[in-house]
Amino acid sequence: MIKKLLNLSGIFLIFFALHAQASDTIPKYPFINYSADTLIFDPDSTNLNHFFEKYNQVIQSGKGHINILHIGGSHVQAGTFPHTIRQHILLANPTLIASRGMIFPYSAAPRSNNPQDYQVRSKGSFQIVRNVFAEHAVPLGVTGVAVITSDTLAELKIIFKDTLLQFKTNQIILLGYADSSAIIPTIWIDSTEYYPVSYDSIKKRYLFETKQFTDSFTLKINNSNGERFIINGFYLGNSSDGITYNSIGVNGANTNSYLRCQNFVQDLDLINPDLVIFGIGINDAFAPNFNPEEFKQNYLALVNIIKEKNPNCSFIFVTNNDSFKKTKVKVKRKRKVKWINNENVLDVQQVMYDLAEITHGAVFDQFEIMGGQKSMAKWYEYKLAQKDRVHFTRAGYVLMGNLFYNAFDDAFQKINSKKTNLSE
After folding, report:
1. Is pLDDT above 90 for 192?
2. Starting from the edge strand earliest in sequence, which strands make up the sheet with 314-318, in order?
3. Residues 6 or more apart from 32 whose CB is under 8 A from it?
4. Would you place residue 329 in the very low, low, confident or very high pLDDT band (cuts 50, 70, 90)?
5. For the whole model, what pTM was predicted?
C-alpha cells in the first residue's frame, strides 16, 4: 500500500523537504503540487544509498564511471524529459561529462520522431521495427527498435545539436548486421573514413575507433548488392571517467514490449547501469484489460534482468502522468467526442509504490505533482500538455525534467549530509 511505504520512515517526507518551491527557475502554477516534488523512499534501507555513495565518490575524486539508464515509451523517445535531466546532472558536474552512450536513429524511418539533442539525416529508404508488436521482423535488443534497409545508397548522418553539452567520442559501437558478410559498413568523420577494427558475429556489433569528435559522424552501409542491413542502435563511447546518462524510449511501448526483446540482456552489458529510471506504464494503463498484478510482475521481470548485470543497481519508478482518453458517446441520437479521465493511473501509482518497496527503490510521483486526477486538463489549458491529453508539450517536459532533477539532487544532498553528520 502507498501508506505502508510512506510510514516506513516516520519523518522522511519532512527530511526530504524540497527546495523546488524556493527555486526561481521553476515556473509557479496554482494547480501543481510542488510539495510532492521529492523522491519518496525509506532513506534507511534504500539501494539509492549505494548509488549516491558511488555518485559522490566520482564527483569528489573525478575518477570512476556512473551509468544511468532512463527507459520508457513515447515520453522518453521524444527526448526532452530525459535530456533536461541529463543537462542538469552534467552541467552541475562539467568536468565529468562522459560519453553520450546509447542512441538510436529514429527519424531515419518515416513518421518517427527523434530526441531533441541530435538530428538524423538519412539517404535511401529505411523501415522501422518496434517492440510494440508481438512479432518482430528482426530480433530487437535493449533499444527496443531497429531500422532495416536494402537500399544501395543508404547512409545515416548523426548531428549533435546541444550547444551546452559536448560529448567527446572516439569509439563507436554499431549494433547491427547484414544478411551476409559482403557488407562492410564504414564511419566517416569529416573526410576521413574508418573501417571497423572488429566485428562480434555473436553479439552482432561493429567496433570503430576514430579520432575524437563532438559534432557529427556518418555511417555509410556500402550495400552494393541490395542486401538487407539491420541497425539496432549506436553506442558512443570514450575512455573518460564521468557520468553517462542513457535514455531509451519507444513510442507505444509497454512493460511487455521490452520483455519481448530477444537481445535485451545481451545489449545491456554496454550500459551496465548503476541507476535505472523506469518510466514505462502509460501504454499499459491504456489497455482495455489492464491488470495491475500482471503489470507489477512484468516490471519485476525487468528488474531481475537488470540485476543479473548489476546486483547493486538502484531504481527510481516514475508514476504515470494524469491523462485522458477520447471516446464517442451518443447525445440526442448524435455521436459526440468526450474526454474521459484514465482512472488506471491510480492502479499504476500503487504498483510503483509497491515496486519501490520490493526493490528498496524510490518513487517520483509525477501524478501527484501534476495535481492528481483530472489535472491534465489544467496542464492542457496552460499549454503544458498536448491536445491528446496524454503527452506534454516541450515546455511541460522541460518543467517535469526540472522538477525531477530538483528531487534527485535534493535526495543526494540530504543523504550525503546525513552520512557526513553520522561520521563526525
Report:
1. yes
2. 39-40, 362-364, 314-318, 275-279, 65-72, 242-249
3. 369, 370, 371
4. low
5. 0.92
Q: Is the pLDDT of residue 20 over 60?
A: no
Q: Do the Cβ atoms of 141 and 130 come closer than 8 Å?
A: no
Sign of the torsion angle spanned by Cα atoms 185, 187, 192, 196: negative
Coil, helix or strand at residue 152: coil
Q: What string of H, E and C letters represents the secondary structure of 303-364? A: HHHHHHHCCCCEEEEECCCCCEEEEEEEECCEEEEEEEECCHHHHHHHHHHHHHHHHCCEEE
DSSP-assigned letters across all residues of 190-231:
TTEEE--SEEETTTTEEEEEEEEESSEEEEE---TT---EEE
* pLDDT per residue as tens digits for the range 93-108: 999 999 999 999 999 9
pLDDT at 44 over 80: no
pLDDT digits (tens, 9 = 90+) for 98-136: 999 999 999 999 989 999 899 999 999 999 999 999 899
Residue 346 in grid coordinates: 491510480
Cell 553528520, located at residue: 421
Q: pLDDT tens-digit profile of 269-327? A: 999 999 999 999 999 999 989 999 999 999 999 999 999 999 999 999 999 999 999 88
Q: How far is CA 9 from the centre of its chain?
A: 29
Residues 6 or more apart whose Cβ sits within 8 Å of residue 34 = 18, 20, 21, 26, 28, 369, 403
Residue length, the chain?
424
Cell numbers that stand for 383 in this block: 499549454
Give ∠ CA 210-216-217 in degrees, rounded to 5.
50
Q: In angstroms, what CA-CA distances link 288 with 73, 280, 320, 344, 378? A: 18, 17, 16, 10, 25
Report residue 329 as a C-alpha cell.
458517446
Measured between alpha carbons, how far is 239 from 279 in angstroms, rounded to an integer? 29
**539501494: which residue's cell?**
47
Region 385-393 average pLDDT: 96
Q: What are the phi and psi torsion angles at 318 (to 5°)?
A: -95, 120
Q: Give the whole-angstrom CA distance, residue 287 versus residue 301.
A: 20
- Provide the CA 404 distance to its chain's centre, in angstroms: 13
What's the rounded Cα separation, in Å, for the pair 206 and 260?
A: 24
Whether the CB-CB separation of 174 and 119 falls below 8 Å is answered with no
User: Which of 420, 422, 378 is CA-nearest to residue 396?
Assistant: 378
Torsion over CA: 302, 305, 309, 313 (sign): positive
